[in-house]
Design brief:
Elements lengths: L2 E7 L3 H12 L4 E4 L8 H4 L15 H24 L10 E5 L2 H10 L5 E5 H7 L9 E5 L7 H14 L3 E3 L4 E7 L2 E6 L2 E10 L6 H6 L7 E10 L9 E4 L2 E5 L5 E4 L3 E2 L8 H14 L8 E11 L6 E4 L6 E5 L5 H17 L5 H6 L3 H5 L3
Parallel strand pairs: 1-2, 1-9, 2-6, 3-11, 9-17
Antiparallel strand pairs: 3-5, 4-5, 7-8, 8-9, 10-13, 10-14, 10-15, 11-12, 12-13, 16-17
Bound molecules: flavin-adenine dinucleotide.
The site of flavin-adenine dinucleotide (FAD) has 42 residues, from helix 1, helix 2, strand 10, strand 15 and helix 9.
């Protein structure tokens, strides 16, 4: 029988995380994914858990990022037990480099006692000997770790299935139609009746905002990455400068990312984008130039008008929720997003602060 308590549109890391938490809580849950699980932005991500690397302001978005990042160590253990998938959590911290004295002074001003420590040039080079000798030093973001984004998504999906969730791949949702107190999801594999619906279809969520009578706040921000498999260089920590990062993964590959092009729906890595990364990365680590490139890829970050995500119920259609717009931080924010959506659906009042801030009021009141 095609009847579920909750139907989730989109099987990226956000949709699968929500499916995991809801099915674990005992709800009959289904995910509808138009392609393959985690096949879009989720598998393009470098997997950084950059609460600090993504935020200089100390606002509620930073608190959301920090809280989500801090959920990862216990989540990694739980998902390994439930799904057998290792999400490859690495907690080595990250180096944010300074090349000039002025950049150094700015980074030193950010240092604090708990999370952010200034390291001198000599100290950085002792830990990461292949970083450019031209640096002035670096801020060590001690607890900003990293994971493998696609593995988080697959671990959530396997765990959700274990708790009874149904996951339909190659199953695009075409329409959401009110049916009494529930909703009909019209898909390529037939019609499903869902008591509640969660829209978590990344940058394509815009289609459902419009279908459901709202302004479309989503815009794509194309990002390209490349991977190398170093033969000589040993890189221990994630290192970044401006928007170029070097992320050593557990399997020995190193991800170099990422370009950023607003309103570009193209998903092919281009010569221009890849060469931009190649130039920037050699400034950070000159010797990386002789290492073999193994792949390059590209995908679309789901950005909203103000850059913050939505965790919100539709103002007029009770039971329709949006969990989307995670832009550069969907892997980082998947754990807290899943718990917030569970809280909204089960009305357990744990995350009211976030639900208030990340509501659709921003969209309804903002003419941007
Ligand atoms: P997606 O992963 O795009 O999933 C949405 C899914 O919905 C897709 O699988 C799509 O097929 C499906 N869908 C769409 N329409 C329909 C429909 N009508 N019916 C059914 N299914 C539908 N984040 C970090 O936290 N750390 C990083 O280091 C990081 N690096 C990144 C690097 C790059 C190059 C890019 C592009 C992104 C990066 N991100 C990073 C951002 C992160 O990848 C995204 O924020 C996150 O993956 C968004 O997840 P999502 O599930 O919302 O979207």
């Amino acid at each position: 029988m095609n009847v579920f308590d909750v139907g989730i549109i989109g099987g990226g890391v956000i949709g699968q995380g929500i499916a995991y938490e809801l099915s674990k809580a005992g709800l009959k849950t289904a995910v509808f994914e138009s392609g393959e699980i985690g096949g879009k932005a989720t598998s393009a991500a470098a997997g950084m858990l950059g609460a600090h690397s993504e935020n200089e302001k100390r606002d509620i978005f930073f608190e959301l990022c920090l809280e989500s990042r801090n959920l990862y160590p216990s989540l990694a253990k739980e998902l390994l037990e439930q799904s057998g998938v290792d999400i490859e959590l690495v907690q080595e911290g990250m180096y944010r480099l300074a090349f000039t004295e002025e950049e150094g002074r700015f980074l030193q001003s950010l240092a604090d006692e708990n999370e952010l420590e200034w390291h001198s040039r000599e100290n950085v080079l002792a830990n990461e000997p292949h970083v450019s000798e031209d640096i002035a030093g670096a801020l060590w973001l001690k607890h900003d770790g990293q994971v493998k984004g696609s593995s988080v998504c697959h671990a959530y999906a396997k765990g959700a299935r274990k708790y009874g969730a149904s996951i339909f791949e190659q199953c695009p949702v075409f329409d959401v139609i009110k049916e009494g107190k529930a909703y009909k999801l019209v898909t390529s594999q037939g019609v499903f009746i869902c008591g509640k619906v969660v829209v978590s279809s990344g940058v394509w969520s815009g289609f459902f905002f419009e279908k459901l009578g709202l302004r479309n706040p989503m815009k794509p921000v194309k990002g390209e990455c490349l991977a190398i498999k170093p033969k000589k260089l040993v890189i221990n920590k994630t290192v970044f400068y401006e928007h170029c990062y070097i992320v050593p993964k557990k399997d020995g590959t190193v991800i170099i990312g990422a370009t950023s092009y607003e309103n570009d729906w193209d998903t092919h890595p281009t010569v221009k984008g890849v060469s931009e990364l190649m130039i920037k990365v050699q400034k950070i680590m000159p010797e990386i130039g002789s290492e073999p490139v193994v792949s390059a890829w590209s995908s679309l970050r789901p950005q909203t008008a103000d850059g913050w995500p939505y965790f919100a119920e539709h103002p007029e259609h009770e039971g329709i929720f949006f969990a989307t717009g995670h832009y550069r931080n969907g892997i980082l924010l998947a754990p807290i997003t899943s718990l917030i959506v569970k809280d909204m659906i089960l009305k357990t009042n744990q995350y009211e602060r976030y639900i208030h801030t990340f509501s659709l009021n921003r969209l309804l009141s903002d003419a941007k």
